[in-house]
Amino acid sequence: MRRLLLSASLVLCSLPMAAEVRLPHLFSDHAVLQRDRPVRVWGWARPGETVSVSFHQQKLSIMANSYGQWETWLKPESAGGPYTLTVTGDATASPITRNDLLVGDVWIASGQSNMEMPLKGFNPDTQIKDHEKEIAAANHPKIRLLFQHKRPAAVPLSDTDDTWTVCTPETAAGFSAVAYFFGRDLQEHEKGVPIGLIDTSWGGTPAMTWMSAGGAGFLGQGSLFTNGAGMVADQGATDEIKANLAAQDDADKAAGRTPVPHAKFTDRNSSWNPAALYNGMLAPYTKYAIRGAIWYQGEADQSMPYAPYYGRIFGGMIQDWRHQWAQGDFPFLFVQLSSYGTNTVDGWSTVRDAQRKTLSLVNTGMAVTLDVGHPTNIHPGDKQAVGARLAAAALSISYGAKAEGFSPMFEQATTEPNGMRAWFTHAEGLAPKAGAVGGFEIAGADHKFAPAEARVEKIGDHVTVVATSSTVKEPKYIRYGWAAVVTDYLYNSAGLPMGTFTSEP
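RE: above sequence
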């Protein structure tokens, strides 16, 4: 029984203690609330206390439940502000006032180090292109930034310690460069619409740790990330839990009792543990209304044995986020991994193709970045292109833009004499910037790929590439860009490059 009480007390420590009326930290000064949809406002108070919420021209009242929790909904508002949010309680002396709130579009930005990489760069050898010029120009009063500090957790947290700031050179310098360029480009298109960016990222982390425990359990792949050599399995309990259990054992021995055996705890605070970063760095935001999410991750999953499972895990993670936010199939935009490393293994390409296949999910978009990678730097400096391509996809999916927002996408493959024909969408004007079409390979049923000569052919309204090789007698498969470092690029008329793909199932 004492063990159960101890475990229960540890869980309760993750919940805010209800006293006077309180809001989550993300309802801070300078916050952005999502436009054109109902917005939930929630917090804590004394059980049974009547809480009043005032925002713009709306006034609402709600009673806290027996646990001291309350929530209410603001009706949809158009883009605008600044406004004031006021929350009062009939048993609380002082009202809560939050100033300079805007109504606009809120985007979650997450992933690993290429999303985390700030505008000022990581170090002198890993800098953002033109970073000094970009930082100096980062004065955008209608762009607001929330930087989530690194915080793994054993259970889903209900609050964060982090708050919103106005985008200035000082605040933007330490913020995600990809997210900043994405938000800046969005606002240039959506004139006058405030943009809120929530940067919650952690370098070197796999996709599994960004899923909820329910989502990870449903996929049944959690053991990959808890049993691997050098990962997090069997790390023991935290010092606090160990101390509590040891004290209990000592008390039992002093009283002449045999200590009750207890299971060894796993360290659930590792950044590689399934759900640890979802719990600490995403769960606090799942009640917050958003427009969508951007994602840059996959480097940590490209090695064996993880790469073959990435498609299932990544697709499952997107569906899990949509389930947790309960805001429908919101836009989820992601980056296909850049060029990096050596061409001796194909885990990098496996992950890229898994990312491409995830486009089968509704309202997803992919920014291809093969051409802005670097063979010896896993953190390429041209984050302007990455942000711009994510913004182009967002404008097409979520803002009704007419311009082409997607890279050429493989649709299907058909056989040709001595070769294969690949069919593409979003491929108008497909051509290399210079020289011949390269980067294609074909294979027979044995899956042994050989370099192929390739050419672009237009068939009616369809853009295709025909690839042939005299060394493959009965071609069955075609692929492109199947290397860690890709050097042959094809672009559509919008200047967006083709990404890695294979026709293999």
